[in-house]
């Protein structure tokens, strides 16, 4: 970077794949002074970061989660097979509590001491003989009794579908979010400080119901009681949330977001990037050829095979004062 070493440090694209944020807002009085870290989620009040789509849109081979368009087709078929009114009028969650205190608190909302909280909650049991069955909580959150082929093949125990699905954070945000919303069931979204590209666009009481994290059991019971007494309104919320994630989180829109994000960020560069002489170009063939098995299958399955016949969406004009830091907040 020559004389622009500081610019190089500030404007290299950094990717952070861990759950927890590393760039704290309190460390930077001016947000634009923070290093440009791209990540899947952030704590809205305490962290800075540039939100980017997570890997699961292109599939998660280790968990046998197919790329988003193909997985969405499976979910849609199952929604048609098991209509919402045919499901049981309870809230459902199954996942790995691990060391996540909030998930242990959620499990207390099962039937206990004579209290019926209208929730069927389960801890995930790992099966050593079937590694693919040790999927993370988002996989088990999704099924809720739904009989998806890729999940059944993983050896997962299925239960009767429920009217309502619960979304709750783990170590931070959970990739289960979009899958749960796609199930045509009203989603009970436990309040969380974490935000991703999907959650920041959701509207409470339209796409999901809010659950108080400090009083989860009573909050879940109140919402389920109301939904059971007003099934048409409850079903509408489930349909609206499902429609939003299917239409607004399409791969076309996702690539629009990525294009605009990188293009707008590139405008902030104060030096001209150059390709190092020893750099090795990476293309889709070089990546896929080195992969094996399901990893290679998902790479090929998620590969775009045509050029779009329409232009990307247009961004609305931004306020001049926010030009230099809007991407970070």
From TrEMBL:
Residues 17-272 form the Glycosyl transferase CAP10 domain. InterPro entries: CAP10, O-Glucosyltr/Glycosyltrsf_90. It holds the Pfam family Glyco_transf_90. It comes from Eragrostis curvula. SMART domains: CAP10. This is Glycosyl transferase CAP10 domain-containing protein.
């Amino acid at each position: 970077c020559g004389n622009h070493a500081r610019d190089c440090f500030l404007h290299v694209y950094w990717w952070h794949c861990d759950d927890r944020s590393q760039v704290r807002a309190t460390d930077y009085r001016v947000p634009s002074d923070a290093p440009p870290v791209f990540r899947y989620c952030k704590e809205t009040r305490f962290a800075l970061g540039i939100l980017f789509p997570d890997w699961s849109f292109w599939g998660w081979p280790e968990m046998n989660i197919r790329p988003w368009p193909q997985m969405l087709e499976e979910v849609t078929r199952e929604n048609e097979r098991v209509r919402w009114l045919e499901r049981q009028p309870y809230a459902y969650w199954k996942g790995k509590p691990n060391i996540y205190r909030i998930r242990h608190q959620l499990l207390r909302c099962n039937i206990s001491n004579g209290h019926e909280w209208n929730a069927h909650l389960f801890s995930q049991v790992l099966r050593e003989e079937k590694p693919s069955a040790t999927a993370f909580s988002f996989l088990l959150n999704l099924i809720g009794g739904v009989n998806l082929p890729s999940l059944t093949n993983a050896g997962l125990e299925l239960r009767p579908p429920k009217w309502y699905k619960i979304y709750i954070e783990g170590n931070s945000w959970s990739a289960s979010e979009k899958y749960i919303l796609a199930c045509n069931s009203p989603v009970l979204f436990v309040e969380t400080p974490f935000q991703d590209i999907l959650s920041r666009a959701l509207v409470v009481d339209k796409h999901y119901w809010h659950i108080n994290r400090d009083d989860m059991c009573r909050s879940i019971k109140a919402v389920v009681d109301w939904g059971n007494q007003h099934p048409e309104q409850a079903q509408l919320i489930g349909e609206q949330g499902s429609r939003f994630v299917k239409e607004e989180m399409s791969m076309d829109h996702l690539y629009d977001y990525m294009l605009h994000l990188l293009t707008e960020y590139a405008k902030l560069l104060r030096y001209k990037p150059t390709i190092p002489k020893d750099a090795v170009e990476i293309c889709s063939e070089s990546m896929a050829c080195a992969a094996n098995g399901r990893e290679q299958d998902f790479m090929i399955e998620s590969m775009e095979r045509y050029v779009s016949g329409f232009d990307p969406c247009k961004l609305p004009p931004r306020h001049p004062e926010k030009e230099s830091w809007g991407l970070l907040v």
